[in-house]
Amino acid sequence: MSDKIWTVYLSGEIHTDWRERIKAGVEAANLPVILTGPNTVHEDSDDCGVAIFGSEENKYWHDRKGALLNSIRTETLLKEADLVVVRFGEKYKQWNAAFDAGQAAALGIPYLTLHPAEHDHALKEVDAGAKGMAREPEQIVQAIAYIIAGSMPK
Fold first, then answer.
1. How is residue 91 annotated by DSSP?
2. Residue 151 has what DSSP assignment?
3. Check: CATH 3.40.50.2300 for 6-39+78-149?
4. 19, 35 in Cβ contact below 8 A?
5. Cα distance between residue 36 and residue 49, in whole Å
């Protein structure tokens, strides 16, 4: 294994523990990985623009201020990533995650998708651009271990 420290951007759904499971697995395997991602506090992500730049009566402009501010973080961290993991969850449609996968593809950054089987058809194009598709966060950790060290699952 080289001395390289890998940066992995975790994109997508914010309502389950998948990020924590990946973090725990990466730490348990002692992998040289830095995990980055978006602001996962939903209210902060939605309201950051108006909290900083002033309120908006129209919800469209409220959301746009937040989206533009959040895009600075997302674009910067995506460009710095060696690998992107894009999670599509069960409860909500993650349009932002699909956008992140598209940006990663456009930038030439490899990405893995993580989603349940019921999303296979809807995500067929996103999955076609991915270097792999997982069902569970632990499979992502195994993939990262293999990518970095050639370690096969135990």
1. S
2. P
3. yes
4. yes
5. 21
Residue whose structure tokens are 């533009």: 68
Amino acid (1-letter code) at residue 31: L
Q: What is the C-alpha to C-alpha distance for residues 27 and 61, in angstroms, rounded to an integer?
A: 41
User: Token pair 């600075």 is at which residue?
Assistant: 72
Q: Which one-letter DSSP state was computed for residue 117? A: G
Residue 118 DSSP symbol: G
pLDDT profile of the chain (154 residues), mean per 10: 90 94 97 96 94 97 96 97 95 87 97 96 96 98 97 87
Sheet containing 83-87: give its strands across.
33-36, 6-12, 83-87, 111-114, 132-134
Write down the H helix ranges in 57-116: 59-80, 95-107
Name the pairing type of β-strands 111-114 and 132-134. parallel
